[in-house]
Amino acid sequence: MANVFITGGTGYIGQALIPRLLERGHKVRALVRPGSEHKLPNGCTPVIGNALDRSTYIRQILPVDTFIHLVGVSHPNPSKAEQFRSIDLVAGQQAITAAAEIAIPHFVYLSVGQPAPVMKAYIAVRAECERLIREKGLNATVLRPWYVLGPGHRWPYLLLPMYWALERLPSTRDGARRLGLVTLAQMVSALAISVENPCPGVQVFDVPKIRACAA
User: Fold this and answer.
1) Structure confidence at residue 118 (pLDDT)
2) What is the SS3 assignment for 145?
C-alpha cells in the first residue's frame, strides 16, 4: 500500500486513475481548488490549494511515497501555446520543486511523446519539465503518451488504419510507434504500475511500454 499525492486528479486521466489506485489499496490525496472537492471519489482525501503555487500545498503533501503530477491544459492544440507556458509549465515547475524540497521518494510526471513534427510549444514545455526533474535529482517515472483515446477523445480512432500501415514501413515505424495512440485504460494501468514499481533515477514509459502495461 502506497501513500499517493496527485495534482490534476479531477482531470480526464486523474478521474479514472484515482478509483483504480483506491481499489488497489493505496491511500490517495488529491490537490483541488476550493469548491471542487465533490469531484473526487469517495475514499480520496482532498487537499485544498493552487497547483500554480506550491506554498499553498507543500505542507500537506507528506506523508507520501509517490507524487503524481497530471496538471495540464485540457484538449491541447497549437492555439494554446500561451496557456502551456502559463499553466502546464508553471504547475510542473512548482510540483517538481516541491518534490525536491521535501525529498519525495518517487515522482511521476505525465509528459508527451517526443520529438514530433507538431505541437512544438506543448512538447517544449514538457521537455523543460523533464529537464528540471533530472536537474533536481528526483527518482521519477516519466510517461510519454501522444494521444489518449477514451470518452470524449474518440475521433483519432479514424487514424488507426494509417498507424497500422506506418508501423509496418521501416522508414516510418519508429515515429509511428513513438507517436502512437494509447487508450485511457492503458494509461491508467501504466500509472498504477509506475506507483507500485518505483526505481532509482529516471525511467521513461514511451507509447510501446504504456501499451504493454495493459497487455
Assistant:
1) 84
2) coil
